[in-house]
Automatic annotation (TrEMBL):
<feature type="signal peptide">
    <location>
        <begin position="1"/>
        <end position="22"/>
    </location>
</feature>
<feature type="coiled-coil region">
    <location>
        <begin position="127"/>
        <end position="154"/>
    </location>
</feature>
<keyword id="KW-1133">Transmembrane helix</keyword>
<protein>
    <submittedName>
        <fullName>SH3 domain protein</fullName>
    </submittedName>
</protein>
<dbReference type="InterPro" id="IPR003646">
    <property type="entry name" value="SH3-like_bac-type"/>
</dbReference>
<dbReference type="Pfam" id="PF08239">
    <property type="entry name" value="SH3_3"/>
</dbReference>
<feature type="transmembrane region" description="Helical">
    <location>
        <begin position="173"/>
        <end position="195"/>
    </location>
</feature>
<feature type="domain" description="SH3b">
    <location>
        <begin position="23"/>
        <end position="89"/>
    </location>
</feature>
<keyword id="KW-0732">Signal</keyword>
<keyword id="KW-0812">Transmembrane</keyword>
<dbReference type="GO" id="GO:0016020">
    <property type="term" value="C:membrane"/>
</dbReference>
<dbReference type="InterPro" id="IPR016476">
    <property type="entry name" value="SH3_dom_pro"/>
</dbReference>
<keyword id="KW-0175">Coiled coil</keyword>
<keyword id="KW-0472">Membrane</keyword>
Amino acid sequence: MHKLRHICFALLSLSFAASTHADETRYISDDLTTYIHSGPGNQFRIVGTLNSGEQVALLGVNDSTNYGQIRDGKGRTAWIPLDQLSDQPSLRVKVPSLEQQVQTLTQKLATIDADWNRRTADMQKKVAENDSTLQGLRNENQGLKDQLTVARKKADADAVQLDDKQRAIIMQWFLYGGGVAGVGLILGLLLPHIIPRRKRDNRWMN
């Protein structure tokens, strides 16, 4: 009877300790497959096993035995040493998440690489177009320079021809003026001899 009272008191204490903790998510450590017990100690009956990485809910803690009361994914309630629980997701949970992140990052990198290649191609195309436009402007500028050189040579030739024509006209006027002066001089010399002779001839006839 006395022993039964102690057992009831211990169960009440355990129940009280378990009720003071809210449910918390924990994970079975990655490096083991652990046994779960019906009570907070290895002296209690084993009621099953949990594989490493499984997620469980921590219902309470027995500080005296350092055991925690858990509920697994199958709905079983049992006890397990606290050192076999972790508050971080196990590799069993992390690996698929990490693989998904790697896949997502790989896709982003592929997209970035494709976008970078597209932008590079666009820039190269624009540079080539600008080079072509620049070369066209250079060719046009050189053509204008050539036309200007030809025009200047033609203008110089026209100026030379104009000078020759002006000299020819001046020479023609000079010759014409000299001719007129010469004719006038001759007439001036001849007329005095011609006119008086006629007058004398007329006077004898009268």
